[in-house]
Design a protein that fits this description.
Blueprint lengths: L1 H18 L4 H17 L15 E6 L3 E6 L3 E8 L2 E7 L20 E5 L2 E5 L4 E4 L5 E4 L5 E5 L3 E3 L2 E7 L5 E6 L19 E4 L18 E9 L2 E7 L5 E5 L2 E6 L4 E7 L2 H12 L12 E5 L5 H13 L6 E4 L20 H10 L3 E6 L3 E2 L5 H8 L14 E3 L2 E4 L6 H9 L2 H5 L4 E4 L20 E2 L6 E2 H4 L3 H16 L7 E3 L12 E2 L7 H16 L5 E2 L1 E2 L8 H11 L5 E3 L17 H14 L1 H14 L4 E2 L18 E3 L3 E3 L9 E5 L4 E4 L5 E3 L3 E5 L7 E4 L2 E7 L2 E7 L3 E11 L7 E11 L2 E9 L8 E6 L4 E6 L2 E3 L5 E4 L4 E6 L12
Parallel strand pairs: 19-20, 19-32, 20-21, 21-25, 25-28, 29-30, 31-32, 42-46
Antiparallel strand pairs: 1-2, 2-3, 3-4, 4-18, 5-6, 6-7, 7-8, 8-9, 10-11, 11-17, 12-14, 13-16, 14-15, 15-18, 16-17, 22-24, 23-24, 26-27, 33-34, 34-35, 35-40, 36-39, 37-38, 37-40, 41-42, 43-44, 44-45, 45-50, 46-49, 47-48, 47-50
């Protein structure tokens, strides 16, 4: 097996080498130069053995917690909230706080006192016991032990941090991973617990399932076991490794050991983490529509023909993306005027048809005195250098390339100016690629040398610390440019790479996946894992980036993506052109239904995006989100919640026409048939090729739109009261908004719907239609006046109170289980 894996990797490497043949001489020169300079300026060798903190000598109260002095280390503990605490072990370099959005916190009352086990530090929600040798026990408000961290170990310039895991514990997060949702279940080639590397990397178009690391490494994970759930975030951007076997082990090559711990239910954990690291801003509404892309739209005529194809086939479209083949010799901030001769007029033409134009941008700058961008950067000393001041020059798409140092405020400001002319001609947004940063090298790390120098906001540092920050800070510069130059519009940035806090600036996609069923199966776990890592807006290249998906695979991928935040088809230049009509019928009709459903769901999706901006909850959520105590749900990675109302069960295997899953508790409606299903059991749902199973939680109100009519779909409980929210605004900019709040009360055959509104934005629909599912209405009263009913629906204008009576329900809950 190991030999076969080695052969596959060598074959893939050779294929890649043929593709990059023109870059091979430069890649050889770069690798030789990098290695020579690394030998000239080596890092200090690690010779001393690991050492623990030693004996606890002193404990002192502070404003937010306590300070502990050990023989060989110090520990500072600060409570930011009663259920969120920061622990900092030193020695080691403190991080530049790029990840941290909130620097001001309300005062927290804590109590420090000696105990038989050492010292206890307590808030109203957490109790930390600091042991005499440096161990730290964490208990929640009930006294249950959430973690018992072992004394950390310091060696060289970095720390190792360990904590035993309960047998049943599940682990989620670490950014972008394709190892399944529960990271603890992942195994390496020797069937040992997989080691995950915290080092953003480009797998160079060949992304085999299980490959690690990928483009986005975020040192945060959510731990789930029987006594509770917690979140751990390490504020450390150095190269690191994590492993989850009997013990959770985190190792970092440099920096202080600073980590944050939050305790509570998963929804509260994401609120706390997004409060700490920032919440994704509300996107423009068009960003939630469908995006069409391909590495191969070389000319204005090609793009125009593609847009015309959508119109001809009656397919909605919101965005077209342009890849590097539209640039001048792959140079950043360029669009070839020979192939896009009337760009300003063209973007207006697209905008008039409801389509936005997004262009790609890479961070590398052509190393040439004929490039004004290079000359400007040289004047500003903007580029990364070797320790002797010589520029780091490495091959990327433009050829010999230099790299801006985004850890310098002046460089970020300069970079932000470069977007202006493209914004002036109507470009709606940008996608940042190759920003791990990637470089072509025949061997070794396909990125900048570890010894490359960075400003780190003036204190200095090298690429070991700055590497993972690179994509985050590039996206920050782009975002701030759009905010400054076009303040009346909301920025839209997509970034391939990033780090903690990237959600403040950019969406992401899952990169260069293969067009295989196995890649599709792993997509959902990647999206959920990103959401639990603080990155709520993501999606895959529909159909996979590299390869030729069958009609069935493309259809199933499209169906899944219909319910994900970022809804885009994209593929390699080596793949056949891929648009919804590429496969003919019946695929075209199925995809048309998916697209139109997506746009009908826009009020629900837009409300979820607003809730994400307000609370930090990802739109795509694991099945344990609402009931973390139900262990049946902990490992489910082939179904997900979209918000609170919808439960989506995609089909991820060939020739499959059903989906079996452990269903969360409660009562559910089949989205397609209105059949009712009882939760708390394992169910098998039918999944014809025409659609994938979708369930609606009983008690939900799902807002949809059809021909400018707001359709309120009611899925009543047998008995009870539920609340729902609908957010509306202009879909762009920062003007007025409105929040419509609904209270649905069910009592036998009686339904009541109350509607309250706040905000000055006018009602954006022409009419209201109320549809009650699985019931036949008999009578209806709006604000105490009777109104006509039509089967299961009424048509009206906005109201304050709706009262309905109905006949007995059409279908009874299904009790079938596997």
């Amino acid at each position: 097996m190991q030999l076969w894996q080695w052969l596959k990797k060598r074959i893939n490497s050779l294929l890649k080498s043929f593709f990059f043949l023109q870059y091979m001489p430069l890649a050889l020169i770069y690798a030789l130069k990098r290695d020579r300079m690394s030998r000239r300026y080596p890092f200090p060798a690690v010779t001393e053995p690991p050492r623990n903190p030693g004996k606890l000598l002193e404990a002192t109260s502070t404003e937010r917690g306590a300070y502990f002095t050990f023989e060989q280390a110090t520990l500072e503990i600060d409570f930011l909230t009663a259920d969120l605490v920061r622990l900092t072990w030193q020695p080691g370099l403190l991080p530049v706080p790029y990840a941290i959005a909130c620097q001001e916190w309300q005062p927290i009352e804590t109590v420090l006192k000696p105990t038989e086990q050492g010292w206890s530090l307590t808030s109203k929600d957490l109790r930390l016991t600091i042991e005499p040798t440096g161990g730290v026990q964490v208990c929640n408000h009930t006294g249950a032990v959430l973690r018992h961290d072992l004394p950390p170990l310091w060696q060289g310039e970095g720390w190792t941090h360990s904590t035993p895991l309960p047998t049943e514990a599940h682990i989620y997060g670490l950014g972008e991973r394709i190892a399944g949702l529960n990271l603890r279940s992942a195994r390496d080639d020797q069937q040992q617990p997989k080691t995950f590397r915290l080092w953003n990397s480009d797998p160079s178009n060949i992304r085999e399932p299980g490959a690690d690391p990928l483009y986005i490494s975020i040192p945060v994970y959510l731990g789930l076991h029987r006594v509770g759930s917690y979140l751990i975030f390490y504020e450390n951007s150095f190269d690191g490794k994590m492993q989850f076997g009997e013990t959770a082990i985190a190792r970092f090559s440099g920096g202080a050991l600073r980590y944050y711990l939050a305790a509570g239910e998963p929804s509260l954990l994401m609120e706390r983490f997004s409060q700490l690291t920032g919440r994704a801003p509300l996107p423009p509404r068009w960003a939630l529509g469908y995006h069409q892309s391909r590495w191969g739209y070389r000319t204005e005529a090609t793009v125009r023909a593609e847009v015309q194809g959508f119109q001809t086939h009656d397919l909605p479209l919101s965005v077209i993306h342009l890849d590097i083949d539209c640039q001048v010799n792959h140079r950043s901030f360029t669009l070839d005027p020979a192939r896009f001769p009337n760009l300003c007029q063209f973007t207006r033409e697209l905008s008039d048809s409801g389509v936005k134009l997004i262009v790609i941008n890479n961070p590398g700058i052509k190393y040439s005195r004929h490039s004004n961008l290079f000359l400007e950067g040289q004047v500003l000393n903007a580029f990364c250098t070797y320790p002797n001041g010589e520029l780091v020059v490495a091959p990327v798409w433009p050829g010999q390339t230099v790299f801006p140092d985004f850890t310098d405020l002046q460089v970020r400001t300069w970079w932000s100016y470069q977007f202006n002319y493209l914004l002036d001609v109507g470009i709606a947004g940008f996608w940042n690629d190759m920003n791990e940063p990637a470089a072509f090298a025949l061997w070794g790390e396909a990125t900048l040398p570890a010894i490359a120098q960075h400003r780190m906001e003036g204190r200095g540092g090298d690429h070991r610390e700055a590497h993972n920050l690179y994509g985050l800070l590039e996206s920050r510069a782009a975002y701030e440019s759009l905010c400054h130059h076009r303040p009346e519009r909301r920025p839209f940035i997509v970034s391939r790479s990033g780090w903690t806090g990237m959600q403040r600036y950019a969406w992401t996609w899952t990169g260069d996946t293969l067009s295989t069923w196995e890649a599709l199966r792993l997509t959902l776990g990647t999206i959920i894992g990103l959401g639990l890592s603080g990155v709520p807006f993501s999606g895959p290249d529909i159909g996979g980036f590299l390869g030729e998906p069958s009609a069935e695979l493309y259809t199933r991928w499209f169906q899944l993506a219909t319910f994900l935040p970022f809804y885009r088809t994209h593929c390699s230049t080596s793949s056949s052109a891929r648009a919804p009509w590429s496969y003919g019928e019946p695929t075209l009709s199925i995809i048309r239904d998916c697209l139109k459903l997506r746009y009908r769901l826009m009020p629900y999706l837009y409300t979820l995006a607003w809730e994400t901006a307000q609370q930090g909850h990802p739109p795509v959520r694991p099945l344990f989100w609402n009931d973390w105590q139900d262990e049946r749900l902990w490992a489910v990675d082939d179904a997900f919640y979209l918000g609170e109302a919808l439960l989506v069960c995609p089909v991820v295997n060939a020739d499959v026409r059903s989906h079996t899953l452990p269903l969360p508790k409660g009562h559910w409606y089949d989205f397609w048939t209105d059949a009712q299903v009882v939760g708390g059991q394992t169910v098998t749902l039918t999944a014809p090729l025409e659609h994938i199973p979708v369930l609606v939680r009983a008690g939900s109100l799902v807002p949809m739109v059809e021909d400018q009519i707001l359709v309120l779909h009611l899925y009543p409980l047998a008995e009870g009261e539920t609340n729902s929210t609908l957010y509306s605004d202009a879909g762009e900019g920062y003007g007025e908004c409105r929040i419509d709040q609904f209270c649905l009360m069910s009592r036998s055959t009686q339904l009541e719907l109350s509607w309250k509104t706040t905000g000055a934005y006018p009602f954006p629909y022409t009419q209201v239609e109320v549809q009650v599912h699985s019931q036949v209405l008999q009578q209806a009263w709006i604000d105490d006046e009777e109104i006509a009913v039509r089967g299961n629906r009424i048509v009206c204008q906005p109201f304050k109170h709706l009262r309905l009576t109905s006949m007995a329900q059409n279908s009874s809950p299904q009790e079938t289980s596997n």
